[in-house]
């Protein structure tokens, strides 16, 4: 390699490394502020500044959804399987909203419950046909009942 | 010189590259079209509906291959930019600059199809989570490279300046890819992994992989077409271009 | 067939996404062809002008250095 090319190579490599390190440090520093959501445990532990609007993430607790028959008002409980947080929301829910599904609600805490402005459904990275999902659920159920019988 | 290096040098010569690319191009377009059609048919018709998202999950077949391409094309552009900066090889400048609009197109498709998919499943068109934001930054990086290239008068200087920007922007690639692991995002984690089990049923996975292959082949077809046009402009004073233009005019002289 | 296009109510979303995919990639595929026509036309014009100049200078008295 000629000296000119070597010099260019070193210069380019140094600048790219420097920018990489700078970005890495910025990302690390922003880590806290990059938090997209808080779990019910974090909320109850007081990690969320009081009165501020934030995103609450968790699973909709089974058998907790209560729809108001006259309006779009919905009450449900969000859980991270350690702690629970009651949520109130008025509006149209996304298709994937159902019990046992991960959701992200934006809003703030108002006298003990979370008043949501917006409810988004989070879905996982698993895709399968309904038949496969049913078969897995059946196998699980069979496994459980066998377990109980023993 | 060893034969591979010799071939590389030969490939770097514009007239040789122009001719060789011209010979490959029809095949590349044909393969991309056929595999693309098979993949789309598989995704829209053959693949069963998802147990949770039902039919809306079919957007994955255009969204995910384009998202992969947005990262792949950027890496390809930056690698050629690196060679262009250090070794000043004209063909690398051409390849890097020809990649930028294709990559921008794939990134744009990724963002729009993602948005259209987000509305029925998540309940929103857009949210500022780490994955979506870093992909948007990727689009602006592509725009920056294209803009810088067209803003500078001297084509070769412009290519080197833009290649430099492309190279610096490489830091965004790991951020896009790992954003779903590093931070809490609305966007779900990786479904398909090169190593280990993919979290998708085989009946749904094959159209996705077929389309990923088709988009890669399409990228190289579009890249070669664009590079050939760029070389004609860059080498317009050279004998091989004169000969080519004269041959196309059909010796009307 | 209608069922296929309806996609159980997700038709509007799915066909928008696939439409964007096709339109954008088609535009990407056509852009270099238009550029190619423009470049070739420009080159042809330049060559013709040069050829015209050459015949003109040949018909005139041979000058040194041209």
Give a description of the structure.
The complex is a heterotrimer of chains A (150), B (253) and C (66). Chain A has three helices and six strands; from the N terminus they run H-H-E-E-E-E-E-E-H. Chain A has helices at residues 3-30, 40-44, 130-149; strands spanning 54-60, 66-67, 73-79, 84-90, 102-110, 113-121. The termini of chain A are far apart. In chain C, 82% of the residues lie in helices and 0% in strands. Chain C has a domain at 23-52. In chain C, 15% of the residues are buried. Chain C has 66 residues and is mainly α. The longest helix of chain C is centred in the middle third of the chain and has 49 residues, at 11-59.
Structural class of chain B, by secondary structure, is mainly alpha
Strand order of the largest sheet of chain A: 1-3-4-6-5
Oligomeric state of the chains present here: heterotrimer
* Percent of residues in beta strands of chain B: under 5%
Whole-number mean pLDDT of chain B: 91
CATH-assigned homologous superfamily of the largest domain in chain A: Nucleic acid-binding proteins
Major protein interface? A-B, 41 and 42 residues
Instruction: Tell me the series of helices and strands of chain A, N- to C-terminal.
Output: HHEEEEEEH
What general outline of chain B do the C-alpha atoms trace? globular
Number of helices of chain B: 9
Average residue pLDDT of chain A: 84
What sequence of helices (H) and strands (E) makes up the elements of chain B? HHHHHHHHH
Q: What Rg of chain B do the Cα atoms give?
A: 21 Å
């Amino acid at each position: 390699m000629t000296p000119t090319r070597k010099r260019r190579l070193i210069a380019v490599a140094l600048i790219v490394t420097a920018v990489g390190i700078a970005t890495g440090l910025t990302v690390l520093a922003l880590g806290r502020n990059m938090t997209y959501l808080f779990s019910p445990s974090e909320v109850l532990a007081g990690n969320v500044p009081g009165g501020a609007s934030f995103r609450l993430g968790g699973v909709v607790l089974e058998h907790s959804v209560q729809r108001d028959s006259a309006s779009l008002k919905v009450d449900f409980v969000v859980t991270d399987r350690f702690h629970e947080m009651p949520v109130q929301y008025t509006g149209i829910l996304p298709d994937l909203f159902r019990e046992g599904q991960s959701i992200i609600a934006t809003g703030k805490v108002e006298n003990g419950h979370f008043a949501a402005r917006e409810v988004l459904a989070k879905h996982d990275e698993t895709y399968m046909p309904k038949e496969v999902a049913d078969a897995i659920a059946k196998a699980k159920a069979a496994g459980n009942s066998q377990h109980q019988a023993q | 010189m060893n034969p591979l290096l010799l071939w590389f040098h030969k490939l770097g010569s514009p007239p040789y590259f122009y001719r060789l690319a011209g010979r490959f191009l029809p095949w590349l377009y044909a393969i991309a079209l056929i595999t693309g059609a098979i993949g789309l048919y598989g995704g829209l018709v053959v693949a069963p509906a998802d147990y949770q998202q039902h039919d809306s999950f079919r957007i994955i077949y255009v969204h995910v291959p384009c998202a992969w391409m947005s990262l792949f094309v950027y890496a390809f552009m930056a690698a050629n930019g690196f060679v262009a900066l250090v070794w000043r090889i004209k063909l690398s400048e051409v390849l890097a600059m020809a990649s930028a609009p294709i990559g921008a197109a794939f990134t744009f498709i990724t963002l729009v199809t993602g948005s259209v998919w987000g509305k029925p499943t998540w309940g929103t068109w857009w949210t500022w989570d780490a994955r979506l934001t870093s992909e948007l930054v990727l689009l602006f990086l592509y725009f920056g490279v294209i803009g810088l290239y067209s803003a500078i008068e001297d084509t070769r200087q412009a290519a080197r300046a833009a290649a430099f920007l492309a190279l610096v922007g490489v830091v965004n690639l790991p951020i896009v890819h790992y954003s779903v692991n590093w931070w809490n995002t609305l966007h779900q984690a990786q479904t398909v992994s090169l190593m280990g089990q993919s979290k998708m049923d085989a009946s749904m996975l094959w159209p996705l992989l077929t389309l990923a292959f088709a988009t890669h082949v399409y990228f190289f077809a579009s890249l070669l077409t664009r590079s050939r046009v760029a070389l004609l402009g860059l080498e317009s004073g050279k004998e091989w271009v004169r000969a080519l233009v004269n041959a196309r005019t059909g010796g009307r002289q | 067939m209608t069922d296929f296009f309806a996609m159980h109510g997700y038709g509007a979303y799915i066909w928008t996404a696939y439409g964007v995919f096709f339109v954008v990639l088609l535009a990407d595929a056509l852009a270099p062809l238009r550029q190619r026509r423009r470049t070739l036309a420009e080159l042809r014009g330049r060559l013709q002008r040069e050829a015209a100049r050459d015949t003109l200078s040949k018909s005139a008295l041979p000058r040194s250095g041209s």
